[in-house]
Amino acid sequence: VCVRLYDRCTVLFTHYTATVGCSFAYLPRTTSCSCRLQISGMAAGHESSGRVRLRRWLNQSLRVEMSDGRTLVGSFLCTDRDQNIILGSCSEYLQPDSSGSTVEPRILGLAMVPGQHIISVHVDGQCSA
């Protein structure tokens, strides 16, 4: 599917956006275009079970436990090949201190969680590390 956005040809996917070049530099607002995009390793109409699972998780509430002890809770928006995760409406929760007192969550808004710091991911109370 080719969609014109900001006067260039853009192909939109659920978890990422890829821009492809068109054969012309600028598009008038009334012009449509057709582009060809090939994704290596992906047969037409076939997605791996991992991609299907990620697609089901889109816009779901995700709890991400990080290597430094923090827990982030937010709406799953996207990921990439490096396993980084983007969470929307995200809040950060710290581990309770030794006296057992908890700290109020910190509101982060839109947050990028580096894949190298992710320990586990939980969706709707189900563990799927």
TrEMBL record:
It holds the Pfam family LSM. Keywords: Receptor. Residues 49-127 form the Sm domain. InterPro entries: LSM_dom_sf, LSMD1_Sm, Sm, Sm_dom_euk/arc, snRNP_SmB/NAA38-like. GO terms for cellular component: NatC complex. CDD domains: LSMD1 (cd06168). GO terms for molecular function: RNA binding. Belongs to the snRNP Sm proteins family. This is Putative neuronal acetylcholine receptor subunit alpha-7-like protein.
